[in-house]
Amino acid sequence: MTARTVLVTGGNRGIGHAIAAEFVAQGHRVAVTARSGEGPAGTLTVRADVTDTAAIDAAFTEIEEKLGPVEVVVANAGITRDKLLMMMTEDDFDVVVDTNLGGSFRVVKRATKAMMKARFGRIILISSVVGLFGGPGQVNYSSSKAGLVGMARSITRELGSRGITANVVAPGFIETDMTAELSDDTQAAYKKSIPAGRFATPTEVARVVAWLAGDDAAYISGAVIPVDGGLGMGH
To answer: Where is each Ketoreductase domain found (predicted)?
Structure first.
């Protein structure tokens, strides 16, 4: 794989941290954005909130000065505010969509400046099985994650001829701090609904992302790749 300059948003924990670590292990120059905390060893951590366009621009400027133009961007930063529809406020909806979908837009738009000039780029949007499968109490979250599919496919049609690909990775249940807090009974119930019978490791998601960024995936764009053990198949 050709060594690239990679940016992973929200790379200070969970799946984002694992993705950044995988790119480092494969020999890439890796930066992560984080509002707090640090990325894995070997990464450059820059402070940025994906809802702030000026902060995103400043983060890219710092990365470009220290590592070079961003060639691979992984839009991973996201939040949840789960509530049943009747209890969900407009703010609950707006802040999740603005972070998860709007944040991806801001980051990708800034990244494409250098990508178009270089006639090369890899854009990978981290969605969720919930974006295609739905989930009770997650109208805001699932809407934001479903929107990433349309984003990737529109980018593909706009920029595909410039050597830029845009794809979506849709993880299912992953072994993170969030799932570890679930009771044993709840975890067992979830696992019964997954054909694979288990949760994925963050590394399993990270390796799919790294493959999409690599030379072997140059002819794949506008795709949605599930990493969910078969949970959302058919969607």
So the answer is: 4-177
Mean pLDDT on 127-145: 93
CB 213 within 8 A of CB 6: yes
Q: Cβ distance 108 to 123 under 8 Å?
A: yes
Task: State how many domains the chain has.
Answer: 1
Helix axes 103-118, 53-66, angle to 10 degrees: 40
Residues recognised as catalytic? 141
- What pTM was estimated for this model as a whole? 0.95
pLDDT in tens, 9-61: 999 999 999 999 999 999 999 999 999 999 999 999 999 999 999 999 999 99
The CATH number of the domain where 124 resides is what? 3.40.50.720
Structure tokens at 212: 């999409």
Please indicate, yes or no, if residue 138 is contained in any of the structural domains.
Answer: yes
- Domain of 94 in residue numbering reads as 5-226
Single-letter amino acid code for the residue at 133:
F
| Two tokens, residue 196 | 């694979």
SS3 78: coil
